[in-house]
Write a structure and sequence with these properties.
Low-confidence stretches: 1-6
Number of helices: 8
Order of helices and strands: EHEHEHEHEHEHEHEH
CATH class: Alpha Beta
Largest sheet: 8 strands, mixed
Strand order of the largest sheet: 3-2-1-4-5-6-7-8
Strand content: 15-25%
Mean pLDDT: 94
Number of domains: 1
Length: about 230
């Protein structure tokens, strides 16, 4: 499915949108026609990153503000932050995300051993997010295994599947549309939110593979689906 020309009216907030992964996703979705707001703990930093991305796109379609304001403006919220900041940012936006879908991209990497799987106390970052935010937020896991190197190159179709885990079928379907709005990506329903333990654990494995084989960004494909 090629989605780079799709017109969308949904507003997507990318919290942690000044980072490599978050800004790459924001760039792709803005190009696909989504309204995109990037958030940061510092609104000025988010605004500066939005200007940088708009220059790359050749259009002023991305705006930047604080994490809380970005979450409040959005129909759907994406969280892409280092694990060390995960809990604090979730607590800061808890009220603003009630009634919404939150897509958690966070991987519980444990520096300096970022190429070794780390299972956190809550089993997965997304499970910790759901526990913290409560039943009023539909948390979905996705995009953990996509390299920012591919996202930033707009001429590059991303040859990767995206595992989508969640406990709400409608929320997973909405996130699948976000996945397939990006050229080359295919959404794979990977089951309940608990299965995100495996998706998160794949990231350090892929990072190890990247280093071992000098790859700019290994991805995954699920075979045998027809």
């Amino acid at each position: 499915m090629s989605g780079e020309s799709t017109v969308n009216v949904m507003t997507v907030a990318v919290l942690g949108g000044t980072g490599k992964e978050g800004s790459g996703l924001a760039l792709r979705w803005a190009r696909s026609g989504y309204r995109v707001v990037i958030g940061s703990r510092e609104a000025e930093r988010a605004a500066a990153k939005a200007d940088e991305l708009n220059e790359q796109l050749g259009d002023s379609v991305i705006v930047g503000t604080s994490n809380v304001d970005a979450a409040a403006q959005a129909d759907l919220v994406v969280l892409s932050v280092p694990y060390a900041a995960h809990q604090a940012i979730l607590e800061s936006v808890k009220d603003a995300v009630q009634g919404k879908i939150l897509v958690d991209v966070t991987v519980p990497l444990l520096p300096p051993n970022i190429r070794t799987v780390n299972v956190p106390e809550g089993k997965a970052a997304v499970l910790e997010a759901q526990a913290l935010l409560g039943e009023g937020v539909r948390v979905v896991a996705a995009f953990q295994n996509i390299s920012f190197n591919h996202l930033k190159n707009l001429e590059h179709a991303i040859d990767s599947d995206v595992l989508v885990c969640g406990d709400d079928a409608d929320a997973k379907q909405e996130v699948a549309r976000l996945v397939e709005a990006i050229d080359g990506m295919r959404a794979i329903d990977a089951g309940p939110l608990a299965n995100a333990v495996a998706a998160e654990a794949l990231t350090p494995v892929l990072m190890y593979i990247n280093k071992r084989y000098k790859s700019p960004g290994a991805g995954i494909r699920i075979t045998g689906l027809g």
